[in-house]
């Protein structure tokens, strides 16, 4: 697992870490039960403050993607599949809302891209 933080990016470092780990978990590149590096180790490897990495891990834990087991470390949970299903359900609800509001597919996708901060 390689995490890259672009310090020149307008996206905060903790969010870059969170997003990369979340993607690795939901795409199953990090399997259920995989142990993440310690906060201290990852902060050292990336040249970041401990609090930056801790925030990323905290947000992943709040999303149910990882769990911290005290001194044993932080591990990937089976929730990646559940998270993906929640997103699919939210997408279905969004699509139904867009249709009810008379918003066409092109515009609905533009709204989602803007919300995700993705160009094009």
Write a concise synopsis of the structure shown:
It contains 5 helices and 2 strands, in the order H-H-H-E-E-H-H. With 120 residues, it is mostly helical.
Structural notes for this entry:
With 120 residues, the protein is mostly helical. It has two domains: 13-77, Arc Repressor Mutant, subunit A, CATH 1.10.10.10; 81-116. It is built from five helices and two strands; from the N terminus they run αααββαα. It has helices at residues 13-26, 39-46, 50-62, 79-100, 105-116, and strands at residues 66-68, 74-76. A two-stranded antiparallel ribbon has the order 1-2. The longest helix is centred in the C-terminal third of the chain and has 22 residues, at 79-100. It is globular, with a radius of gyration of 17 Å. The model has no long low-confidence stretch (mean pLDDT 91).
